Amino acid sequence: MARPADIPEFEGGRLLANLMYFARTLRAAGMPVGPGRLLAAVEAVRAVGLGNRRDFYWTLHAVFVNRRDQRELFDQAFHIFWRNPRILEKALAMVLPQTRMDTGEPQAPMMKRLAEALHGKDGPGGDEPAEERLELDAALTFSERELLQKTDFEQMSTEELTLAKAALARLRLPLLDVATRRFTADPSGPRVDMRATLRAALRNGAGAIPLKRRRIKTNHPPLVILCDISGSMSRYSRLFLHFMHAVTNDRDRVHTFLFGTRLTNVTRYLRAKDIDVAVDRVTEAVDDWSGGTRIGECLAEFNRHWSRRVLGQGAVVLFISDGLDRAAGEGLGPVMERLHKSCRRLIWLNPLLRYEAFEPKSLGMKAILPHVDEFRPVHNLASLSSLIEALSRPAGRRLEAAAEWRPTAA
Question: Which has fewest Cβ within 10 Å: 115, 299, 300, 364?
């Protein structure tokens, strides 16, 4: 293996410069890479050497990657930047839509943020005449706000993600107030409050008795969010954290749980006012991010330990998951039935509904569908806006919204 003394690239500065450009690319693609990480990468490469490409890959991986959701981005960036011709060819085909590759092999899509980082302002086309760039920009930014609303979270660029997070921070989630068993004083209330009336009569002595009235007290119901953070949901669940943070800080009685292979209550972490602090605390608290999925076991644990604490007073439950279960839906039906009976309204938000040809064919989906009141997509800002509108209206009959899917799921 080559040792530092045997690496001429360090002395000439070529490898150092390439490492610096690679770190800039990762940072532009959205990874938290600063000067400290770059210095650590240089020292790590000096210590390990350049014996083979695999060692070089895992050396940089150990320095730059600190979360599971960053692995795919780093992997694609590494193979593209360090000249893997096969992957670079496929990546360029994704960047240039007019170029098609008829190789017959499944193509791993390159993240839009990575394409933007590699071929952004300094990439190809930077020397084009100003008039052509302005014309192209005008075509691409037509009705920008509407396009952002309809853009899939998975396909957003770094700039679009920033705008989407700002939009999520401004979201307000209205829930219709529900009647409680308590009463409150109201001069124009429909009922006479006999106790208050008699007390007023005793204070006034002889004379007319003033009637005191009351009405049924209403209150907004608790909101419980159960969000899937498995590998198939990781690209969405990271952004959903911003949505859950905005909701948690906008109203009281909001309870948030994340689940993959285990259930984690992250409500107190999301109460931090700073979204970056909240996300960091959640990341540290959750150990099974981007792992497998045991929906049945996690919901069973929720029913045993948390349902009586958080599902009282007509709670509304948002169940965010794609329904892909490692256990193939085993035991999922009974726990979903109990969850449905314990809450006022159960809404299943599934990003797979963005596909027009979607059908709930997996065993997990078939076990979940009979026990939800609404089945809605959640993959862009427009779908979240639609959810807010639905929550601001009176709910229909229970299980009615998912009825159209039952023949397929049966």
Answer: 300
Residue 369 is which amino acid? L
Q: Are 51 and 3 in contact (CB under 8 A)?
A: no
Considering Cα of 279, then 284, then 290, then 296, what sign does the dihedral take?
negative
> Mean pLDDT per segment of 10 residues, for the chain of length 410 residues?
46 71 79 82 84 84 80 82 55 41 41 56 41 32 61 76 81 73 86 87 76 84 89 81 86 88 91 87 84 86 91 88 80 90 89 80 84 86 83 70 52
Residue 134 buriedness (CB in 10 A; 0-12 / 13-18 / 19+): exposed
CA 358 → CA 36, 322, 387, distances in Å? Answer: 45, 11, 19
Distance CA 185, CA 162 (A): 47
Convert 104-128 to b/e letters by CB count within 10 Å (16 or more is b): eeeeeebbbbbbbbbbbeeeeeeee
Q: Are 364 and 323 in contact (CB under 8 A)?
A: yes
Q: How far is CA 100 from the centre of its chain?
A: 32
Distance CA 88, CA 58 (A): 19
